[in-house]
Amino acid sequence: MPYHHGNLRAELLARAESVVASEGVDALSLRSLARDIGVSHAAPGRHFPDRQALLDALAIEGFERLGGELSAAVGDGGSFEDRLTRTALAYVRFATGHPALLELMYARKHREPTDEVRAAADAWAGVLLALLAESDVAIGDPERFGVILLAALHGIASLAAGESLPPAHAPDRLAVDAVQRLLRGSRVD
To answer: Which of 14, 70, 96, 176 could form a disulfide linkage to 127, CB 3.0–4.6 angstroms apart?
Structure first.
């Protein structure tokens, strides 16, 4: 096998995300990644001691990317509602664009997340909570409002990823509607 001169860790994570997206988490192994990238089967071990470490690193990277996209969406311009709407759209677009990665990020099937995974998850959630704490609208407890909003957005994204939304209900439009209804109530003007 040739010596790898690039950034092997980043290449392994990119290939792992691709495998998870196309074949699912169960198809992922360090040995197959090494073969796909063209390095020795031992090379991934320099970065990931085992498969779970790779999955954790992939989840952390996903949370970091999500946090970056939400931070960019929040920005510093516009009303609270505008900023919250942009943030909701960023979440739904990330979730529908990377459904397998998002599932991996939230998976807790066999063990509790590591401190690093939990910190990455808390960091992206902190972006949303910071925005909610700045609200000039009566939303009550920002954390509770955030959980309700996230449940709605995650549900929209899950339905969209599973192709279970009626054609007339685009995920972006539903995300905007969710924000408006949570801020104003369900009464239609």
So the answer is: 70
- Residue 1 confidence class, pLDDT cut points 50, 70, 90: very low
Structure tokens at 128: 């949303």
Q: How far is CA 137 from the centre of its chain?
A: 27
Cα gap 157→159, rounded to integer Å: 5
Query: 């009550």: which residue's tokens?
Result: 140
Rounded to the nearest 10°, the torsion over CA 55, 59, 64, 69 is: 130
pTM of the model: 0.88
Placement of tokens 């664009």 in the chain: 97
Sign of the C-alpha dihedral computed for residues 140, 144, 147 and 152 taken in this order:
negative
Q: What is the DSSP letter of 70?
A: H
Give the start-end residues of each E strand in the chain.
none
